[in-house]
Amino acid sequence: MPQQRLVIIGGVAAGMSAASRARKLDPQLEIVVLEKGRHVSYGTCGLPYYLSGQVADASELVVYTAEFFREKRSIDVRLEHEVTEIEPGRKRVHALRSRAQPVVVEYDKLVIATGGAPALDIPGVQLSNVFTCNDLAGTIRLRAFIEEQRPRRAVIVGSGYIGLEVADALVHRGMEVVILERSESVLEGIEPEIGERVEKALHGHGVRLIKNAAARTISGNAQGGATAVQYGAGGSEPAELVLLATGIVPRSELAATAGVRIGRTGAIAVDERMLTSVNSIYAAGDCAEVRHLVTGQPTYLPLGTTANKQGRVAGENAAGGHGRFDGVVGTLVTQVFDLAVAKTGLNVEQARAHGFQPDAVTITSTSRAKYIAGKPILAKLVWDRATGRLLGCQMAGEEGIAKRIDVAAMALHARMRVPEMLHLDLSYAPPFAPVWDPLLIAANEAHKKISRS
Ligand SMILES: Cc1cc2nc3c(=O)[nH]c(=O)nc-3n(C[C@H](O)[C@H](O)[C@H](O)COP(=O)(O)OP(=O)(O)OC[C@H]3O[C@@H](n4cnc5c(N)ncnc54)[C@H](O)[C@@H]3O)c2cc1C
Fold first, then answer.
1. Among 82, 193, 417, 418, which residue's CB has the most CB atoms within a 10 Å radius?
2. pTM (2 decimals)?
């Protein structure tokens, strides 16, 4: 049999996970990665920490270089190769090398791992001091701007976790920061009482949050630099730096044009093997949908942890294996100054929208025994009144948050009901938890409410 060729479009989390897994399973397979940028395999999630200076050098974010993949794993990584067309009928892709030279590459199997792009729909985004923090090259430019131009005042548009992490980084650099948020709450999908804690943390660190403030335009000066962001009905905030953190949209156009089915979310529809609607074409990461295990529906939750898993499964199957990825429960944790905020599963509103009958409790407890300086933890548990099934959990506090949200995520994966959570054997010693863990206290309160109804 002639040598088979796997082509992968995109070389970050999903793409390089696919390439590495395929190489492990099949040492003979020819693997070509086409990446339009100059970097592969870097920790996008570390970008805010590079911006703040906690990560001193951009090279520290690079897990493996293109040379490493070529020399040690026999993976033919081609940088500055932008794929412009997929021809499924002839099993080949067209690319532009260094933005000019046309190249055609044939494939037997194809993995699309083109990621997501920042949503940039505000007039003025082309101005010289308007940035995003979505990829390594762009964040290197942003940090150089901060270090060379020393802006004193930044306006961040959007208060999702990227906007908040960047706010933290810019305050760390001594800047005055204003966040414009178009809705009533920070961190989309966060419950109001948890959101309040986040707002308090922002306020405590001098960040001004303006809610119900949809950015309309960015105005500039004659030199092509942004000077202010206009929002809502007549508001305006002066800025020496504008950071757009208005969300991620899947880069699915290439796939759509090739006839690959796009789901209702706008991302590429895949099955549990990461196979698209077109034979021999897989998709993974921020360009693809993922099944939500609580609702059972395809959803769009672009996260690095998912991109790695989906990429691994796509690579395994493209190399002839039998991997599957069943889905996610929507777990996320982020750090806003001293506060950790986390969520998993559904909030009350989402649960209702998906046909559940949600009920909820909110409790406060501490991260460890009070007598050794436990820190407050706020936790909210959501369950289905009809079945008692856990539907979601959110938490905020200064320590012990990630450990506990992961337990709740496990419970969601196991489709546990609240009564089954009451006596979970969670770890206890005074430096790590109170004797009744906050999660057990929340489950107990939920159980009492269930028993009363
Ligand atoms: C600031 C920030 C912080 C984050 N923090 C976290 C976190 O703490 N936890 C978490 O789970 N997730 C986090 N994420 C999300 C996570 O980084 C992404 O989910 C992950 O990087 C997605 O990987 P991917 O490979 O699917 O896509 P990307 O990382 O977007 O990579 C796609 C690649 O494809 C290339 N490409 C696109 N189109 C083409 C084309 N036509 N031809 C060739 N190449 C192409 C792009 O240049 C890009 O390099 C964070 C993201 C950001 C921006």
1. 418
2. 0.96
Q: Is 160 in the pocket of ligand 1 (CB under 6 A)?
A: no
pLDDT digits (tens, 9 = 90+) for 146-172: 999 999 999 999 999 999 999 999 999
Q: What is the mean pLDDT of residues 23-50?
A: 97
Using 50, 70 and 90 to split pLDDT, how confident is the model at 1?
Answer: low
Q: Which residues does residue 110 pair with via DSSP β-bridges, in sequence order?
A: 7, 281
Cα gap 328→433, rounded to integer Å = 27
Neighbours of 102 (CB within 10 A): 9
Cα of 116 from ligand 1 centre, angstroms = 6
Q: Cα separation of 439 and 424, whole Å?
A: 9
As a whole-number percent, the residues of the chain with pLDDT over 90 amount to 97
Active-site residue set:
45
CA-nearest residue for atom 8, ligand 1, is 45
Which atom, in ligand 1's list, is nearest to the CA of 84? 41
Beta bridge partners of 131: 243
Residue with CA closest to ligand 1 atom 16: 304
Ligand 1 mutation pick, 303, 310, 312, max ligand atoms within 8 A of CB:
303
- Contact between residue 421 and residue 437 where contact means Cβ atoms under 8 Å apart: no
